[in-house]
Design goal:
Elements lengths: L7 H23 L1 H12 L3 H29 L2 H17 L6 H29 L5 H28 L4 H8 L1 H13 L22 H5 L3 H30 L4 H29 L1 H20 L5 H30 L5 H31 L6 H14 L7 H14 L6
Length: 420
């Protein structure tokens, strides 16, 4: 085989488009939250109806992330990515024509199918396009779009558009960028075997096994449990923190909104910062540090009073760690643990488990805790989850290329393996 230079130009074009695509996934998923007051009034919905709309998307997302990851390994990335981004963009627009609860839930469930299909496939496409030494950073950068667009900017975009159009037109307007991006992906995104140098990276091959082979890799079940711990933090904070701030700390709506936006801004930085750091220090150490940092920051947050600036800063750091963990575990950890040609399958299984349990079970459990023990105790749930995550992270096998090479050199020099 003739040695060829890595196609860095394609790498950055692909990663940019995939990051924007996953940002639109976040925007379309979370845009509905700030629109719910207007939607509830027009469609005569209850708070329970709102919870059902959010939950059904998470459930279908998790199931189809697990299913479509494996399918994209067999039929190719483009055949899943491009139809998925077009589908969830159109379905987001269709949310604006819902006439009642049943139609709204149906549209959101179908959105979960499309977004769940896009998620692991886009991660695998990013891994395919990335040079191994930049894989962690690129996967984190791609996923950071979700936090920036979905958790930080969507409340601003939604509320500003509501000043000039109805909630129905808000959905229609935000569906347009996804259709444009789908067209750009059609012309840019390549299949793994078309990426040069095609056979220098273990990701650029066809699938050679099934999902049982994926689960035999030690880091996959470990990452599934660890991601559940991390996503418990993300979803409990996203679902219950506004109530905690307004009912327990008595912040007004404006100050509450500013504090909560720290989840998106901190998560945006963390989703490429922590995986990028793991390229240097290793996946296991970065995971342990992420869970420990989250636990410390949430414990500090719980002891704070109604101090919006301090609350924002502490929540920003906590979100840096916890959303950084989501990128780390579902990105480079899952990618590097995958059998040859089964990257999307591995990512889909890890993301699916985290989404179903972290996005489904954890919010329901947080509601039970708030009702039974009081909203002031709600932060103990994510604190306990991330403390468990520290122990789970200790079970990870190191796979970061730079760290593995350093360990191998140390073995050659000393004749004995160095502790990680």
């Amino acid at each position: 085989m003739t040695s060829k230079r890595w196609d860095t130009s394609y790498e950055w074009k692909a990663v940019t488009l995939l990051a924007l695509g996953f940002g639109l996934v976040g925007l379309d998923r979370w845009l509905i939250a700030p629109l719910f007051p207007a939607i509830m009034k027009d469609l005569h919905l209850t708070a329970q109806d709102v919870g059902n709309c959010i939950g059904v998307l998470g459930l279908s997302w998790g199931v189809f992330a697990a299913l479509m990851g494996g399918i994209s390994d067999k039929i190719g990335r483009r055949k899943v990515l491009i139809p998925a981004i077009i589908a969830f963009s159109l379905l987001s627009g269709f949310s604006g024509v819902a006439g009642g609860l049943a139609s709204l839930i149906a549209v959101r469930a179908l959105m979960g199918v499309a977004e769940g299909s896009f998620c692991p496939t886009s991660f695998a496409a990013t891994a395919d396009a990335s040079h191994p030494k930049r894989r962690g950073f690129n996967l984190g950068l791609q996923q950071s779009g979700f936090a920036l667009f979905g958790l930080a900017l969507s409340p601003i975009i939604a509320t500003q558009l509501l000043n000039v159009v109805s909630w129905r037109w808000v959905f229609a307007l935000v569906s347009v960028p996804g259709l444009i991006l789908g067209l750009l992906m059609f012309f840019v995104i390549r299949e793994p075997r078309a990426i040069e140098p095609a056979s220098t990276d273990r990701q650029a091959t066809v699938a050679e096994g099934n999902w049982r082979d994926v689960l035999k890799r030690r880091n996959i079940p470990v990452a599934m449990i660890a991601l559940f711990c991390a996503m418990t933090g993300v979803f409990v904070l996203g679902a219950m923190l506004p109530l905690y701030l307004t009912e327990y700390l008595s912040l007004d709506t404006q100050r509450m909104g500013i504090v909560v936006s720290a989840i998106g801004f901190g998560g945006f930085v963390g989703q490429f910062g922590l995986p990028g750091l793991s390229d240097i220090v290793g996946r296991r150490l970065a995971s342990i540090a992420g869970f420990a940092g989250t636990a410390v920051m949430l414990y500090v947050f719980r002891g704070l009073g109604a101090q919006p600036l301090v609350l924002f800063v502490v929540l920003f750091v906590a979100s840096f760690f916890t959303l950084g963990l989501v990128s780390l575990l579902s990105g480079p950890v899952a990618t590097e643990a995958a059998p040859v040609g089964m990257v999307s399958t591995a990512i889909g299984i890890v993301v699916g488990a985290g989404e179903i349990f972290g996005g489904g079970v954890a919010p329901a459990l947080s509601g039970f805790v708030a009702t039974r023990f009081g909203i002031q105790n709600i932060l103990w749930l994510p604190i306990c989850a991330v403390l468990l995550g520290i122990g789970v992270s200790l079970l990870l096998e190191e796979t970061a290329p730079a760290r593995v090479r350093r360990n191998a050199r140390a073995v050659e020099l000393t004749g004995s393996e160095q502790p990680e």
